[in-house]
Amino acid sequence: MKYLFDYSLEELENLLVDGGYKKFSASQIFDWVYKKLTLDFDSMSNISKELREYLKKEMSLELPTITKKEVSKDTTVKYLFNFKDESKVEGVLMHHPYGTSYCISSQVGCNMGCAFCASGLKKKSRDLTSGEMVSMIIKTMLDSNERISHIVIMGTGEPLDNFDNVIKFIKIVNAPKGLEIGIRHITLSTSGLAPKIKELADKGMGINLAISLHAPTDDLRMRLMPIDKAYKINEVIDASNYYFEKTGRRITFEYLLLEGVNDSMYYADKLVELVRGMNAYINLIPYNHVDEFEFKESNSKNVDRFYNQLKSRGINVTMRHKMGDDIDAACGQLRSKIMKEEEIKK
Fold it and tell me: What whole-number distance in Å separates Cα of residue 262 and Cα of residue 60?
C-alpha cells in the first residue's frame, strides 16, 4: 500500500491521472489532509465515492503512535513516536513569542558519534522517509491541537546524510497546498557535511542553515565531533560561504558551551578569528546534561565572559534560551532512555 504522506502534490496528481481520475482531486485531498487534518477518506465529501474507494484500497494515512510524551513546566513537549516497524523517533514541540516550532528527527538513530550527544548512543538503523517525517508533524498537531509555524531539522540524525528524503520533506511542508510553512521558517542543522552543504545551496531553496561547530580548532573539534576527520573546519567554512553566496541566507554556527572544554577565552578568540568577516552569527547553546557523558554545562561566569568577548570583537552572537531542562530534552535522550528500559525488561 502506498503512503500518502510520501507524495508531493505533483506526484499525487500524476498518480490520479494515471488511474483515470481528475488532476484537481489531488488538491482537494491535500486540503483535507493538510489544512483540515482529516485522515478519513470517507469524510472527504467533495471527492467522488469511486475515488474514495480507490484511496481506501491503495493509500495509507497511518500515523505513528506516541510511545512517550513529556511536558515541561515551560510548556515544551517531547514526543517519542513508534513506527510500524517498531522504530522509535523523537520530536519536540516548543513555544516561542514568534510562534510554535517543531524540532524533527531525520534518521532512526545517528552515526555521527559526537562525544556529547545522546543521539549517538543508539546508532542509525535506517533513514526516515519524507512521509514519516511529515506524519510526525501531523500527529503532533492533532495531539496538541496546535498549528506549527516553524520547523527545525535538528533532532536525531544528520539531515544531509538523508539528503533526498529531507529535501522532499521540506518541499511538502512548504507547499502552498501542503502545510504551507514558509521557507524562511525552516532551519536545517548539520554537523558539517561540506559537499552536501554545497549541494543544498545549489537547490536554491533558501532555508536557514545552522552548522554544529562546537569548536574553532580541528584538534578540539576532532575530539568532540568525528566528522571533523572527514571535513576539516576550513572546508566547512568554505561550504558555508558558498551557501551564503548562492542563497543570501546568513549562516548560524551553533556552539555548545562545555565547562573546561571549549569555553575559555583562548577558544573565544579562536572563534572570532574563524568567523570574522562572514555574514554569520554564533548561537551559544547551554548543555543539557546526559548521564552517560561526563560533560558539564558551562557556569554562568564563563558563559558571560565568552559571550562578551565575542560581542566586544564585533561578532554577532546570541545565547539560546534553555528549554525543557526538567524533562529528557537533549537530542536522543528520551529515545535512549526508553530503549534501555526495554532492553532491561527483556
Answer: 48
Give yes or no for a contact between 306 and 57, defined as CB atoms under 8 angstroms apart.
no
Q: pTM, whole model, 2 decimals?
A: 0.92
Q: How far apart are CA 211 and CA 283, in angstroms?
A: 10
At 33-87, the pLDDT tens digits run 999 999 999 999 999 999 999 999 999 999 999 999 999 998 999 999 999 999 9
Catalogue the active-site residues: 90, 331
- CA distances to 278, 290, 315 from 327, in Å: 36, 11, 33
177 to 32, 103, 268: CA distances (angstroms): 10, 22, 45
Q: What is the pLDDT of residues 181-237, one digit of tens each?
A: 999 999 999 999 999 999 999 999 999 999 999 999 999 999 999 999 999 999 999
Residue with the three cell numbers 519524507: 130
Structural contact between residues 151 and 181, judged by C-beta atoms closer than 8 angstroms: yes
